[in-house]
Amino acid sequence: MRTTMPARAVLLAALSGLLLCGCSGRAALSGFDPAQSSIYIRKDGSVSSASVEQTGQNYYSQEDLEAFVVQKAEEFNKSQGSEEGASPVSVASCTVEEGEGGQVLKCILDYDSPENLIAFNQAIRNPEIAFASLETDTVSAMSRKEDFSQAVFEDAKGKSTDLSKVTEQGGNRAVRIEGAGLIQTEGKILYTTQGCTLDGESAVQTPGEGVSYIIFQ
């Protein structure tokens, strides 16, 4: 007899059910191995996400979970009109580990664009990755598209920073994100907008309302 799982647990467990022996993608190779759900942005602008969940249970079936997620991934990739061999979303690594009080599920996914990171997690109604929008580009390119003058930037110490200082190194990576969540970056974070909370040199928690900017090197 199969056990019926809560909807949220089904989602995260299903993602972890995509475990494939020896699977290894950009996220795994880059050292992105977070302890909590987050997204990861590299210096080249490529993106990944991680769903991490302490379930409090020990009854997940690998076979059932894998079948569920394979179906969801195929449905999404087909909905994007992807050709054979091209994957808007792909698996970097997944683990199901025994933790205190139950299984810890972790799944890291790679995406071919920030837009598909948002679209996939919205499609599967993932409550852990619930951003409204995500864009990334060089500082120079983004400053030509966005009106940075309306943003209040702070340095890593929380001190207000003049906009000219933020934009003087145009080759740095800029991130525009809407919604609350944890973002990790490949490089050191130099500036964020007011309301963001740094967690070390390369992780930041964004606020629940409005648009946030992150600049890293």
Please give a handful of descriptors for the protein shown:
217 residues; alpha+beta; 2 domains; five-stranded antiparallel β-sheet; 32% strand; disordered N terminus; signal
Description:
The chain is of the alpha+beta class. The protein folds into two domains: 7-129, no CATH class; 134-216, no CATH class. It contains six helices and twelve strands. The chain has helices spanning 7-16, 26-30, 62-79, 114-123, 139-145, 163-167; strands at residues 38-41, 47-54, 89-99, 102-111, 133-138, 153-155, 173-178, 181-185, 189-193, 197-198, 203-206, 211-216. The strands form two sheets. It has a seven-stranded mixed beta sheet. The protein has a five-stranded antiparallel beta sheet with strand order 5-7-12-9-6. Helix 1 crosses helix 3 (62-79). The longest helix is centred in the first third of the chain and has 18 residues, at 62-79. The protein starts with 6 loop residues before the first helix and ends with a strand.
Structure class: alpha+beta
> How many independent structural domains?
2
Tell me the β content: 25-35%
Major sheet characteristics: 7 strands, mixed
Average pLDDT level:
83
H/E topology pattern: HHEEHEEHEHEHEEEEEE
The end-to-end distance, rounded to whole angstroms, is 53 Å
* C-alpha-based Rg, rounded: 18 Å
How do the strands line up in the largest sheet?
Answer: 3-4-2-1-8-11-10
User: Which percent range fits the helix content?
Assistant: 25-40%
Annotation, overall tally of beta strands: 12
Low-confidence stretches: 1-25
Shape: globular
Number of helices: 6
Keywords: Signal
Protein name: DUF1307 domain-containing protein
Signal peptide: 1-27
